[in-house]
Amino acid sequence: MRLEKFISQQLEVSRAIAGREIRAKKVTINGEVVRDAAYKVQPDDEVEYDGNPLVVQQGPRYFMLNKPQGYVCSTDDPDHPTVLFFIEEPAAFKLHAAGRLDIDTTGLVLLTDDGQWSHRITSPKHHLEKTYLVEVEEPIDPVLVEKFAAGVQLHNEKELTKPAVLEILDEKAARLTISEGRYHQVKRMFAAMGNHVSALHRERIGDIELDEDLGEGEYRELTQQEVDSIGLPEELKQRK
């Protein structure tokens, strides 16, 4: 990558400003001042700006975040803070959520800069299971276990939802596993049954479970096993 582009991304400034900082002798590579904006940054280069080391990013990145309420999963929102607020990583702005949560929904969010990987999660044809803890306002009728397994007719939808697994935990709490991602699906499924979801927390996406050691707003890198569990085709794995 050209040094000008690298500095631009690292500092989150325009390339014009990055070029100016390079010409001002503020950038060193392997201890030497470099003023050539076209210099090709190598993976093993030690780059510093104003004496502060910059990380040369190699390969795609994968994180899990325990999302609190009040944050949106888009990367840029003029009205609400985004989940990227919590991510203290170089060029965090390049990350995106692989499967969003509503602003009032908490729990597992996966963040990556790997578009193929996130598409595997969000694509309807892969039917990746997602598990939620659900709290509702009215007592849960046990008959919903069978109704959710058979499919629910959502308002303004032609097709029933795919079979879902409902585990009733107590009078007003349940664990629900679905294999599709329709708009506000969990809330709409309960609404179709005459109940209102008061709290929603995502626990799992596929085989990736939210780390119980992560407090709200905390994140960690995914393990290689977790990354691979999404089931990318071999030809895409080999390109990483």
UniProtKB/TrEMBL annotation:
Reaction catalysed by this enzyme: uridine(516) in 16S rRNA = pseudouridine(516) in 16S rRNA
Gene3D superfamilies, A to Z: Alpha-L RNA-binding motif (3.30.70.1560), Pseudouridine synthase I, catalytic domain, N-terminal subdomain (3.30.70.580), RNA-binding S4 domain (3.10.290.10)
Keywords from the UniProt entry: Isomerase, RNA-binding, rRNA processing
Annotated family: Belongs to the pseudouridine synthase RsuA family.
Protein known as: Pseudouridine synthase
Molecular-function GO terms, alphabetical: 16S rRNA pseudouridine(516) synthase activity; RNA binding
Keyword Isomerase: yes
One annotated Gene Ontology cellular component of this protein: cytosol
Purpose: Responsible for synthesis of pseudouridine from uracil-516 in 16S ribosomal RNA.
EC assignment: 5.4.99.-
Protein's GO biological process: enzyme-directed rRNA pseudouridine synthesis
The keyword Metal-binding appears for this protein: no
Alphabetized Pfam families for the sequence: PseudoU_synth_2, S4
Known partners and oligomeric status: Monomer.
Source domain of life: Bacteria
Occurrences of domain RNA-binding S4 (ranges): 1-60
